[in-house]
C-alpha cells in the first residue's frame, strides 16, 4: 500500500465499501459525538469523513489534533445510512472507519479559520495567503483561473496561433504607466525595464515573418491598485496577426471569449451570441456616458440641450447658451416612486460632486417637479418624446460641458438602473468600442497628445495626418468590454515608418526622439513590415467576471496588497549596502516627516 494514499479525498463511493484504504490530508474540522470522534479530512480534491471509534488508542491521539494538521488515515470504507448521509458531499454516502492514524505535520493555532465563510481583514489573509488558499472559495477561484488559461490556450492553438515567449528584461517604453526598473550590474548606470506589455516584441515577431503569435503574457506596471487592477503584475492573452483588418481580429477573438464564458458560466446564463456589437467611441460616450458601456443596462442617454435653450428654466438655459450640454437619463416606471426616492438620488449626486440631480415626472396632463414648474409645457413634452417615455415614467438630468457631463451622465445611468432594478441578471454582454480618437487635447498643457496607443494606425493614414485637424482623426483602435468592464484594448498597428514619424511629430515628438526611444521597431519597419494588428484581453479580469468577484485579488494566487506590498514574503525589502555597491547604486531616500512636538 502506498505510504500516503490509495485514494484522494473525493474518490470514495458506495462501491468502495469494505475496502481498506489510505487517505492523507488536512484536518478540516472535528466533531465529538459522545465518544465517537468525526474528522472531515480535506485534500486538494475534496473531503471525506473519518470516524475514530471509542475505546481505541487512536481516540486520544485524534483528540489532541488541531485543525489544519496534516495526517494519514488507514481504515475500512463503510456505507452511511439514512440521515447520516451527506448529500452535499460527493463522498457523503460513505465514511472511513479508522484503524491507523499518523500525524505528518502538526498545525499551530491558526490566525483565522479555514472552515466556514467568515470575512477576515484582507491584509491578514494576504500575510497568511497559503492558509487563505485552503478555503474552498479561494481554492475554487484559483482552479477556475487555471482552467480558463488552459481553455484560452487551446482555443488560440485551434485557430492556428503559435505560442512564443517574449523577453522579461527589456528597455523602458511609454505605455501609460511607470516601469519597474532593474539595475544592470554589468552596465553601471543603466537599467532594464520589466515589460508593461509585449507590445513592441510581438510587432517585431510579425516583421520577422511569424503570422499568428500568442502567449499568456506577464505584464508589469508600477501603478496604483484598485478593485479591478492588481498593482505590480498581471496576465493577459496577448496575440498579434499579420495581413489582417480590424474585422479579422474581431472574428478571431469573439469565439474565443464567447467560448470560454459559455464553458465556465452556470447553465441558464445569457451570453452575447454571434458577432459582438460595434459601438463607435463617440456614440458610446453620447448614449452610455462611458467608453466601457454595460449593455445589461437598457437605459439610453439622450441629448436634450435644445429643449432647454432659451427656456424658462434659467440654470439649464444658461448652460446651453455657454456651450454646455443637458443630458437626460430615462427612468421608466419611476413616476410612482415616493418623493424620498428622488431626494435620495439628489443627495447622492451632491455627494459625488454635482450640484444636484434635477428630474421631471411625467403624468397624463404633463410633467411635474421643480424643473417642470419652470419649463414651458411644449418643451416638457419634447423631452418626453425624445426619451421615448410615457405617463408614469420619469427622467433625470445631468448638465455641464464636454467629457465631464458625459461621464457623470454615465454614472447617473448606472445608479438609476441599479435603483430601479433594471440591469439584466445572469448575463454577460460583450461589445467592441471602436473608432477611438487618435489624439486628445492635454488639459494641463493645451497641446495635442496621444489619446490611446501611440503605435496605432490612424484612419486615413498619412494623408489624414497631413490634412486633417488632429482632433478629428480616429485610429484603428478598439476595446472589448463585458458588463462594463474593459477586458482588452487593441489596434491595427502603424507599420509604416513615415506614418509613425508623422504621428509622433503631431504629438510633439521629433524624429530624433522617436529614433532614440523606438529605434529598434522603427528600423525593423524599414526592412519590410506586414500590416498587422492584435489585442490582449486581461486574464485576471476574465476570471474575476466568471468567479463573480468584485476584487481582482480574489482570483490571483499570490497578489500584492493595495499598497503594492507582499506581506507574506515581506517585499519590497531593503538591500544590504554591499549589494547596492555592486550595482553602482546610491540611495537618496526622502527625509522623514517631522513629528509634532508635545
Automatic annotation (TrEMBL):
PROSITE patterns: AA_TRNA_LIGASE_II (PS50862). Residues 144-559 form the Aminoacyl-transfer RNA synthetases class-II family profile domain. It is found in: Cytoplasm. SUPFAM superfamilies: Class II aaRS and biotin synthetases, GAD domain-like, Nucleic acid-binding proteins. Keywords: Aminoacyl-tRNA synthetase, ATP-binding, Cytoplasm, Ligase, Nucleotide-binding, Protein biosynthesis. The keyword Transcription regulation does not apply. The record marks 33 as: Important for tRNA non-discrimination. Pfam families: GAD (PF02938), tRNA-synt_2 (PF00152), tRNA_anti-codon (PF01336). Homodimer. L-aspartate binds at residues 175, 221, 452, 493. Its EC number is 6.1.1.23. Belongs to the class-II aminoacyl-tRNA synthetase family. Type 1 subfamily. GO terms for cellular component: cytoplasm. It catalyses: tRNA(Asx) + L-aspartate + ATP = L-aspartyl-tRNA(Asx) + AMP + diphosphate. InterPro entries: Aa-tRNA-synt_II, aa-tRNA-synth_II, aa-tRNA-synth_II/BPL/LPL, Asp-tRNA-ligase_1, Asp-tRNA-ligase_1_N, Asp/Asn-tRNA-synth_IIb, AspRS_core, GAD-like_sf. Residues 199-202 are annotated as: Aspartate. One of its GO terms (biological process) is aspartyl-tRNA aminoacylation. GO terms for molecular function: aspartate-tRNA ligase activity; aspartate-tRNA(Asn) ligase activity; ATP binding; nucleic acid binding. ATP binds at residues 221-223, 486, 538-541. It comes from the Bacteria. The keyword tRNA-binding does not apply. Aspartyl-tRNA synthetase with relaxed tRNA specificity since it is able to aspartylate not only its cognate tRNA(Asp) but also tRNA(Asn). Reaction proceeds in two steps: L-aspartate is first activated by ATP to form Asp-AMP and then transferred to the acceptor end of tRNA(Asp/Asn). This is Aspartate--tRNA(Asp/Asn) ligase.
